[in-house]
Amino acid sequence: MSSVFRSEEMSLMQLFLQVEAAYCCVAELGELGLVQFRDLNANVNSFQRKFVNEVRRCESLERILRFLENEMEDNVEIVKLEKYPETPLPREMIDMETVLEKLEAELLEANQNQQTLKQNFLELTELKHLLKKTQDFFEAETNLPDDFFSEDTSGLLELRSTPAAAAAKLGFTAGVIKRERMIPFERLLWRACRGNIYLRYTEMDTPLEDPVTREEVKKNVFIIFYQGEQLKQKIKKICDG
Fold first, then answer.
1. Which of 52, 55, 114, 118 registers the highest number of CB atoms within 10 A of its CB?
2. Would you say 133 and 172 are in contact if contact means Cβ atoms under 8 Å apart?
3. How many CA atoms lie within 13 A of 79 on its CB side?
4. What is the pLDDT of residues 100-139, one digit of tens each?
5. Closest Cα to residue 233, out of 171, 183, 175, 141?
C-alpha cells in the first residue's frame, strides 16, 4: 500500500562506500532527496553500530541549537531560511561544534548571573519592605493607649504592664514568609512557645517574582516579640526551618 504514495517506482540498491568517503556520499544523496535508506541492522544495539560517536555529536549540536533558539525567540527575530543549507564538511562540523559549545557555555553563565542578580534584588526588596513594615509596627505600638496591654490576654504582654517587666529587655525577630505559609507558621510558633510571644504580620503591598520559576509570589512581613534567651532560640530555629 505504501507504493500508492510514491510518484515513481523505486529500486532497491546496495552501495559499498569507503569509510573516508561515506560522509560526503551520504550528504550528497541527502541533498538530492531521492533516496530512502533501509536499516539492515535493526537488531543491533545502538552502541554497537558504526559512527555512533558522530551521531551523538550531531544530537548534541541539535540540542544546543534548540536551547539557543528557545533563549532567543523572545528577544531576537529568527529568520526562516527558504531552503536548507548545504551539509557542512567534517572539518566544518568541528568548527561549528566549537562555536556552539562556546555560545552555550556563555549563555548558561549569563543566565546564572542573571538569576543571581534577580535573587539579590528579591532579597533587597524583601529587606526594604521588612524595614518599612517593621517601623510601622513599632510606631503602631508606641501610639497605643496605656491601658491596652493590661487588657490583652497574652502572657508576655501582661508582664509588660507590670513594673518588673518594664525594666526587662524584650527581643524581637522580623522576617518575610510566603503568604500561604503564614497561618501554619503562626500556629507552630504559638504551640512551640506556649503563647509567650507577640506576633504581628502584614501583607507586602507589591508581589515579587521568583527568580527560578518566574512566577508571582505573594509574601507577608512578620515581627515576633519575645522575652528570654530560650524563646529566642526556639523562634530562630522555627524561622530557619
1. 118
2. no
3. 3
4. 999 999 999 998 998 889 889 888 888 888 888 777 777 6
5. 171
